[in-house]
Design goal:
single chain; 154 residues; mainly beta; two-stranded antiparallel sheet; 6% helix
């Protein structure tokens, strides 16, 4: 299964669909149970209020040599066409995209190349990093971190 991560911003007036050439995709679930100490050596009390805070990290190569390169991805809003972004397009997306639940959401979809996503997450961009390394000066690598809601079943 090839790993394709699609960023979809379809609620705002300027819809964007990016297909990232991802090397890795990870989901991290953080829970925060509370431990209350009991004096005089008693067993501490544990309280778990059931909060789960997922984060997603995607790493890969920004490899858009053709500014009009498109690929097929999961169907969203009757279309499967996604653009492979350049470093500048991805950087502009990261620095201009802010989470607004009524107007401007980002959906992260993991695809196996079919029209149905393997997994989909609504999220907000938390962090992005672009690197260039010796011997690969022609391409940037990227790391993007998203805070998300729980996985949506397709």
């Amino acid at each position: 299964m090839a790993l394709a991560v699609c960023l979809y911003d379809g609620l705002s007036s300027s819809e964007k669909r990016f297909a990232l050439k991802a090397d890795s995709f990870s989901v991290n679930y953080v829970k925060t149970p509370i431990q209350i100490p009991i004096p005089l050596g008693g067993d501490p009390r544990l309280i778990d209020i059931g909060q789960v805070r997922p984060t997603i990290t995607v790493t890969g190569i920004v490899d858009a040599t053709d500014p009009s390169e498109t690929v097929s991805g999961p169907t969203r809003n009757s279309s499967q066409v996604y653009t492979v972004p350049s470093k500048e397009e991805l950087e502009d997306f990261v620095t201009s995209k802010f989470y607004d639940p009524s107007d401007s959401k980002v959906e992260i979809m993991v695809s196996d190349g079919s029209s149905t996503p393997v997994a989909a997450y609504e999220g907000a961009i938390s962090q992005a990093r672009f690197d260039v390394a010796p011997a690969t000066e022609d391409r940037f690598s990227f790391t993007m971190v998203f805070v998300t809601k729980k996985r949506k079943d397709s």
